[in-house]
Amino acid sequence: MSAPLRLLYPLTFPLRLVPSVLHSRALATLLNQVMKESLEEGELDFLMNRRIAIEIDDIGVRYRLGLADGRIRGYGDDKPGDASISGGLHEFLLLAARREDADTLFFQRRLRMSGDTELGLYLKNFLDAFEPPARWAPMMRALDRMASMRFPGR
Description:
- The chain is an alpha+beta fold.
- It has one domain: 2-Layer Sandwich (Nonspecific Lipid-transfer Protein, Chain A).
- It contains seven helices and five strands; from the N terminus they run H-H-H-E-E-E-E-H-H-E-H-H.
- It has helices spanning about 5-15, 20-35, 35-40, 90-95, 100-105, 115-130, 135-145; strands at about 50-55, 60-70, 70-75, 85, 110-115.
- The chain starts with a helix and ends in a 7-residue tail after the last helix.
């Protein structure tokens, strides 16, 4: 485990105690705000009645997200995701901060996809094309700073 992760890992312990359904619902609430326009324009309709699993391996946190009634919803582990994306915290930070594109991370095997690959590709293409609204610039700067943390071996 890299030095920054060794420092972060103990801080993630409380997160690992919280049921994944609560993690998923919190992330869904944030994504509904960030992706409001995309939701209104139907750009996420490919997720209707489907579930995406996001697994952050090195900190032991997982999310289950889907779309119902025009909103992103968070789910528990009662049903597996139709598609799953897994990788380390640093890789997801790079993706969220838009410092690396999904193709690069997948081709370098730093992110892995399983399950319904067509659904996973729709999600990847959406994320590649998505531009966060300007009002989220402070959050994007914070993600960029976190992604800048030195991760040895990367």
